[in-house]
Design a protein that fits this description.
about 425 residues, alpha/beta, Rossmann fold, five-stranded mixed beta sheet, four-stranded parallel beta sheet, elongated
Length: about 425
């Protein structure tokens, strides 16, 4: 049987380390040229696969592929595009298989979160139904850290490190000015349903920084919250609030709901920080500033966690190794062996158990008052933000790689998306 080509695609919101996973996939495949032919990449993720807009990664030098490990964002482009169920949209899945056939693709590595795990699973099912076998391997990625069956998700550790450090530095700034100026700083972070990112700010408690965290898992209690903030200002002279974008009111409505939805059907969020800041001001009269971490938190490769970079690369490499062993419809995972010293090994999970399942903050990770983290959470988070893995710098700026991204000649008729 002749060797097959591979397709790699990036999905959803990108991270500081998703390209490290791409590096792991491509470098490992290049070491097995006897079994894997060319590694193609979908330009702009699954959109490129559907439109047959493929990139030939064999045109990239080994040095440029290696440089992906230190480059943020999505080197091949990503997309927020969710394929519907097989029963509702077999047209798009059949198109994917047609593209695979046309380019002799037998391996599909899909790098993303829960929605991409679902797509990957459906592709593996349909390929068997249509009689064209494709080994579909999901490469985990999400800053939200909400994929099940893995200790953590690549992208999260670096965001957690960025938020913890940014919260610390901003809090020191507020502390310096609180006597005559700002007494409240509110930072809004990502996290629609799970408060993992916001939890990172809880690591500052050891430095006696007054931080109040608002988790999506805890219904927002306005009176209790305002009392907590007031007590902190009375004791410390200032208070920092870290609010997850997904914080909900007691009736279940998002505090920052805008009334619109994205391509996945998720409600657009944004604006929790000013809502919280103005609530505090109205109740206490404290001067405030607020900020939204937004793309900064997930793009900050200059401050990436070394542990996170290792995770991302190792899981990309493991995905190829699983494919070479004949595995299909699976996802490589991180299995924690110990907290201190931190050790982990690579495991594997079936995609049918991963797709469309979210992992939330355990109750024993959130403090009893609902505004902080426990020692158990601190033990979990601390190893994930450890170590620095700085990119190369030139003239004071990080030197990130931009690939050639040479197009592959199309063989099929155009496809309307």
């Amino acid at each position: 049987m002749s060797k097959k080509n591979a397709l790699y695609a990036q999905s959803g919101g990108v991270t500081a380390v998703i390209n490290a996973s791409a590096c792991g996939v491509i470098e490992t495949a290049r070491k097995h040229k006897d079994k894997i032919g060319t590694v193609f990449a979908g330009r702009n993720g699954i959109i490129g696969a559907l439109s047959e807009d493929l990139i030939d990664t064999s045109k990239e030098s080994d040095a440029d592929i290696a440089a992906l490990r230190a480059t943020p964002s999505g080197a091949f482009g990503s997309a927020r595009y969710k394929l519907k169920g097989l029963e509702d949209n077999d047209r798009e899945y059949e198109r994917l298989i047609a593209v695979f056939k046309a380019h002799d693709i037998g391996y599909f590595f899909y790098n993303g979160g829960g929605d991409s795990a679902d797509t990957c699973y459906k592709v593996s099912q349909l390929s068997q139904t249509l009689g064209y076998p494709v080994q579909a391997i999901h490469v985990p990625k999400t800053i939200d850290n909400d994929l099940p069956l893995t200790d953590c998700c690549p992208g999260f550790g670096s965001v957690a490190k960025y938020i913890a450090i940014s919260t610390l530095e901003a809090s020191l700034d507020v502390r310096s000015m609180a006597k005559t100026s700002t007494q409240i700083f509110v930072l809004e972070v990502m996290g629609r349903h799970a408060g993992w990112i916001a939890a990172a700010a809880g690591l500052l408690a050891e430095q006696d920084i007054p931080v109040v965290i608002l988790f999506p898992e805890i219904p927002f209690d306005q009176d209790k919250f305002l009392a907590k903030v007031g007590a902190n200002v009375k004791k410390f002279g200032y208070c920092t609030v870290v609010v997850s974008e997904g914080v909900r009111l007691p009736d279940g409505k998002f505090l920052a709901e805008q009334g619109t939805k994205d391509a996945f059907g998720h409600v657009h969020l944004g604006g929790a920080a000013p809502v919280i800041a103005n609530l505090i001001n109205a109740a206490h009269g404290f001067k405030f500033h607020w900020a939204v971490a937004n793309y900064l938190q997930r793009a900050a490769r200059h401050l990436a966690s070394k542990t996170d970079v290792r995770h991302a690369y190792d899981l990309g490499r493991a995905a190829v190794q699983l494919a070479l062993k004949g595995r299909n419809s699976v996802m490589p995972t991180i299995e924690r062996v110990s907290d201190a010293p931190y050790k982990y090994k690579i495991g594997v999970a079936d995609l049918k158990d991963v797709a469309n399942v979210e992992k939330f903050m355990p109750k024993n990770f959130i403090s009893r008052d609902g505004f902080g983290i426990t020692e158990a959470c601190r033990r979990y988070l601390t190893p994930l933000i450890q170590g620095e893995d700085y990119p190369p710098y030139v003239n004071g700026l990080p030197q990130y790689v931009t690939l050639k991204n040479a197009s592959v000649k199309k063989k099929l008729p155009p496809f309307a998306i």
